[in-house]
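CORE FACILITY INTAKE
Project code: CF-77B
Contact: R.S. (postdoc)
Sample description: multi-component assembly, two entities in total
Requested service: structural model of the whole complex
Turnaround: standard
Below are the sequence entries exactly as provided by the requester. Do not edit them.
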Amino acid sequence: MDISFLLSQLIGGLSTAMLLFLVSSGLSLIFGVGKVFNFAHGSFYLLGSYLAYQFINMFTNFWVGVVCATIGAGIFGMVMEFLFLRRIYGRQDEGGFQILLTYSFILIIDDMVKFIWGSEYKTIEKPEILIDQVQIGSIFIPKYSLFILIVGLLIAISFWFILNKTETGKIVKATAIDRDMLGLLGINVPLVMTTVFGVATAMGGLSGALAAPLRTVTPGAGIEVIIDSLIVIVLGGLGNFWGALLGSIIIGEVLAFGILWVPQWASLLNFLVMVLVLIFKPEGLFPQKKGGRV
Amino acid sequence: MSKKLSLCVMFLLLLFATQSFAEQVVKIGALYPMSGRGGLYGKDSEIAIKIALDEVHKKGLPKGIKLDVIITDDQSKPDYAVSVAKRYITEEKVKFLFGVVSSAVALAVTEVSKNNKIIFVGTDHAATDLTAQKFQPYYFRVSNNTYQSMMAGAMYLKEMGGWKKIAYIGPDYAYGRDQWMELKYALDKLGVTYEVVGEYWPKLYEPDYTSYITAIINAKPDILVAGFWGGDTVAFIKQAKAYGLFSKMKYFHPDAGGNYEVMAALGKEMPEGLIMSARHHVNWPDTPENKAFVEKFYKQAGRYPSYAAEGAYAGIHLIAEAIRKVGNADDTEALVKAMEGMKLRLPEDPKGFTSYIDPKTHQIVQVQAIGVTEKNKKYPPAEVMLGKFKVYDANKLWPDFDYIEYLKKTKK
């Protein structure tokens, strides 16, 4: 097996990983900060794809479409948090309520999408400048995959910067530790929660919009991406941003090399990795510290 | 005045009552996915059912029989579909079970049909097992099984020649695995020699094929056979195109690659030169029946039909013809006999051939047309459609009793 092939497999795995990271980072963020497990996160990915389809056709510009879809998904998320989720915070057995409530949104968003855009598959074309490939040595990489890699890294870095180096980040992190105390200090905690939820769902929307030119825009796609995202955040440690990145890379690469050596079992390997992590390090590879690191 | 009015009302009520006595309603319990990924096929089947019902009722059925089709979302879940089918039989008193897209659902529903002696007309699912080793006398299928597609595919590959190395990628469940087994069986039967250089099994609905694509390119097959359906085909083609896979090997997808919904979703992104087929083509055959069907569908839906529509359309006509032949819808055994060997002129039949139900396996026998993708903007939003069709003789594709014996030995 020549080295350039292994390298192309490695890069292929990374590009799979980056899209996975884009989806799961939002899920991880909202869990890390608000302890909200948003089971409907995949539906925001779905919503992002459809909104991108709508706005790209409306403005005939890919970039404007993607930005509008991201904002649109974020606004929808904020409305969902404000009108519904907020009502169950602090209840006894909040976790159960969260799962029921957010699960119901999977069904609502799926049917809403079908109602508005119909059940036939939709397609989004890549922007003109990202259509072909770049050649690095003997390896060909689609420009669009490189673009996703760069966006993923940029997002990871900016989130790290905002959460660790800014005042806003400190407030957000404090929300994860003690909401009551933060409220007593005069911070509008509900507003912080709504905003974080909006940012997280906007991330879901962005990932859906960016994945659309590579995938099929169809109802039902939301529930499918949530499974892989769940594996990623369980691997990485619930609520840990860097954990989500590492989890995504592990899953992407395990699949990329699994295909070479055990093609019959490749799609099972991810679950195997998850089982091993749960047995030997049940808190995940990067567990959330008591201090509420996100 | 009020007396007159009440008399009028009484008269009208009586009129309706006698009418409903004269009309015997025969219920058909249909199961389709109406949500999620399969929702499109359920929706298209529903539209085609309406078109077929209009035609059937226009022509009329004996004893003023009217067909009433109830559709329930089977959620593509076998256990749920079984509970709906049982409810259809006990509460709705349906005379026929109908539809089903997923083979897993169909394999469960055929058991209900067998145990309750209720005819089940399968319109869409393709697992060969149902009309082979899992055959039961109350099951009929009006769309081809994967063996028919794969045998036609093997014939195409044999004629084409000039290749040796072959690889396969298909979803990791019965549909994907059966197609590969059947293609290899058919190639062996035709005496074609080949070398398998890779087999890839992504999960159903896999969103990201990148690593599979790079591995396939490295395996350097002459031909890549694909066994995806629906959205998975769309995602795979989009991603493989970005890696230039189609310029490095021939792409061959004989069961569901050429579905119209795939062409529509890919638009101008669909590469030219891919060899594909489907269970129904909107642009082939060029017969009045196919044109009329496609036009009627377009009028109702404002878009062209996916392959699923024609199966549902055929199913309703099969039931109607059987009722016409028997004269009622109550004698199930007579209806089964009537359906066996029945000829049905369908949109997908080319000139000079009429589909028929094989009496021994209850599988519809149809020609298979395999084409190559080329530019064709007559059916928007698709910009590339299949053309240069090669047509394979229906009788050479099914029944194949050797294969059924093989299945009995290898599968339970």
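Facility notes:
- Chain B touches chain A through 46 residues (CB under 8 Å).
- Chain B has a mean pLDDT of 93.
Invoice: internal transfer
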